[in-house]
Amino acid sequence: MSQLTILHNPRCSKSRNALQLLEDNKCDFKVIPYLEATPNKQELSHIIKLLGIKPSELLRTGEDIYKELNLKNEHDEDKILDAMVAHPKLIERPIVIKGDKAVIGRPLENVKELIK
């Protein structure tokens, strides 16, 4: 089985639940505390490609910085990507990556499907 990677925020209950699921299933995984070790633009772009979504679909729209930057009205996906790199709190979490596949761990069943 290939190693898993989880982009993790320990303050997030969904992220903690995903981490616990990986531990409970004795998965081989690496934790990236993405608020401190933020992926660069190229890395984040690659993760988004693995997820099969657009950058705007990875945004946490409830964050204050989302409103402050008026990202609701931003349609340039490249600028949205730049905003997520500059403000990693905007990145939806948790993200679990296995090989050439990635999922957002909301709901947790997404992670369960990935680790089958």
TrEMBL record:
The keyword Oxidoreductase applies. It comes from the Bacteria. Gene3D superfamilies: Glutaredoxin. InterPro entries: Arsenate_reductase, Arsenate_reductase-like, Thioredoxin-like_sf. Pfam families: ArsC. The keyword Ribonucleoprotein does not apply. Keywords: Oxidoreductase. SUPFAM superfamilies: Thioredoxin-like (SSF52833). GO terms for molecular function: arsenate reductase (glutaredoxin) activity. Belongs to the ArsC family. This is Arsenate reductase (Glutaredoxin). The gene is arsC.
